[in-house]
Amino acid sequence: MASGVKWAPMMKKNPHAGVVLAAQLKISQAFWSAMDDDTDYKPALLEPYFMYYSEQCKAYHSYLRKGFHSLTHPDLVELAKDLKRGRTRQDVRANVQLKMNAVGASEFPGMPEVCADHLLNLVGRLLMTDIGRLPAGGNWTGRAFRDWSGGSIHDFAANAFPIQQSCRHESIRLDLDFNARNLHFIAGLKIELTNNLLDHLEVVHFEGETTVMIFHHVCFLQNQQHEYFPPGFVTETLQTLALLFPQGKWFRKTKAWYTKELRPATPDADPAILACGTLTMTEFSDYRYWHDRLVRLKLLFDQAKPRTLRQWWNDRRDRQWHALWAAVALGVLFGLVQSIEGAVQIYMAHHSDGGK
């Protein structure tokens, strides 16, 4: 696969080393801008995404190098442009195989077909959606994935993220207390940041622990100009993050919790999740793609009962919270008064006996 851009090959000794800023801009323009080679396109905060980009290149490195001895980042850029133009997987795959055969990759039996599939899956994964299993397999991670067997990348996205509004929501409502921090501190759920859009708002039960997956790459979403995803999908996804990481009364506590617990556990954590905009979609009916997952998550939150003193302290959803802690405070106060009164009586009795 040839390229006129003079960038270092990916398939070198350390192919997943950090991508230089100039290359990041070129790659971003190819993947996200509305037009090819749009020099006016200026994406923001690229570091979190390119940590993910480098990890994906690393994961596919040992398999792709068998067929592409000099694969470069511009090669991925050219493939991204082909997919952005709406070309089908079958068409692009056939073109990749022809180029591989032309440079002698056919010395590896069956390798052009296998490598072409891996390469297209890699490019698809750079849209932050797990396409196909990683070549190396590995242990179960809880991550969802989808196979992309044919059609355009736009067709794949439409099938992967359909409208889902089958769950009833009349008996529940979105309120200010429903956020990621409270899901953890009140409902006792583990919160895990994910770079796979397919996992967003999914509840995973594994080894006795319940985990909520939250897609956190806000800048990836905000930088999108080309419509890979269904209409309104990107805006709606950002609104789910504005709901779970609110800008209002919970902001300070949410920021402190995120900074202390979530960010250290996620090397590519996107800090823009704390500034993803004002929440305008305040009703369940406003959501189409994430509606059912939001409803299930809210039901899980509403039905959760505090089990520890810390959860009781943080749970202010019920008006009984104030009565409970008022009763506790009064109990402590009365106990203290009685203790002081008892001590005074003992003191008086002791001195009275001494006077006799």
Order of helices and strands: HHHHHHHEEEHHHHHH
Largest sheet, spatial ordering of strands? 1-3-2
The value of Rg in angstroms is 28 Å
Helix run count: 13
Q: What fraction of residues sit in β-strands?
A: under 5%
| Net shape | elongated
Helix content: 40-55%
Could you tell me the mean pLDDT?
82
Q: Give me the secondary-structure category.
A: mainly alpha
Report the strand count. 3
Low-confidence spans? 1-9
For the largest beta-sheet, the strand count, sense and barrel status come to: 3 strands, mixed
Distance between the termini: 109 Å
Can you describe what's shown?
With 356 residues, the chain is mainly alpha-helical. The chain is 47% helix and 4% strand. It has 13 helices and three strands; from the N terminus they run αααααααβββαααααα. It has helices at 21-32, 47-64, 73-84, 89-102, 111-125, 153-160, 180-185, 218-222, 233-244, 251-262, 291-303, 309-314, 320-355, and strands spanning 190-194, 203-206, 209-215. It has a three-stranded mixed sheet with strand order 1-3-2. β2 (203-206) and β3 form a beta hairpin. α1 runs parallel beside α3 (73-84), α2 (47-64) packs antiparallel against α5 and α4 crosses α5 (111-125). The longest helix is centred in the C-terminal third of the chain and has 36 residues, at 320-355. The model is unreliable at 1-9 (pLDDT under 50).
